Amino acid sequence: MGIGHAKRVLVVQDNVLVAKTMGEVLSRVGLSSVIIHNLADAMIEAEPGNFEIALVDMNLRGEPAWPLLARLKESGKPFAVVTSFAPPELNANFPGLLIAIKPMGVKMLKSVVRKLLVQLESGSPAGASTSEALA
């Protein structure tokens, strides 16, 4: 039984292999995904009607994802940062943000997605979960 109900996940990840793997895992649990590899395209795709939840790498080909995170927060859609390095100001700027530390396995990815789907279903605003870093 999948964890998704025809939900669409915005995956913003500059590493093509990691992004592809994430997309495959999401598909296996019943979610569709749109995969973006750079900040400029992610800013365009980050319109509220294009996705229900988002997974964002903090460093996109040398560009920090700060503007994207701000747009996602404004949208009210649940999102998590999936990164190998979480800058200290991340929690200060986005209290309650779910942060998953790479490398992360399938089990961790599913856990992050479940938490985001709970936020979505409960109507909690983006970043409303307890601040949590998952390693």
Description of the molecule:
- The chain is α/β, with parallel strands linked by helices and 135 residues long.
- The protein is 39% helix and 22% strand.
- The protein has helices spanning 16-28, 39-45, 66-75, 89-93, 106-122; strands spanning 8-12, 32-36, 53-56, 59-60, 63-64, 79-83, 98-101, 132-134.
- Strand 7, helix 5 (106-122) and strand 8 (132-134) form a beta-alpha-beta unit.
- The protein is globular, with a radius of gyration of 13 Å.
- The two termini are 25 Å apart.
Number of strands: 8
Elements, N to C (H/E): EHEHEEEHEHEHE
Bulk shape: globular
What distance lies between the first and last C-alpha atoms, to the nearest angstrom? Answer: 25 Å
Order of strands, widest sheet: 2-1-3-6-7-8
Question: What share of residues are in beta strands?
Answer: 15-25%
Q: Structural class, from helix and strand content? A: alpha/beta
Low-confidence stretches: none
Radius of gyration: 13 Å
Topology at a glance:
Blueprint: E1 8-12, H1 16-28, E2 32-36, H2 39-45, E3 53-56, E4 59-60, E5 63-64, H3 66-75, E6 79-83, H4 89-93, E7 98-101, H5 106-122, E8 132-134
Parallel strand pairs: 1-2, 1-3, 3-6, 6-7, 7-8
Antiparallel strand pairs: 4-5
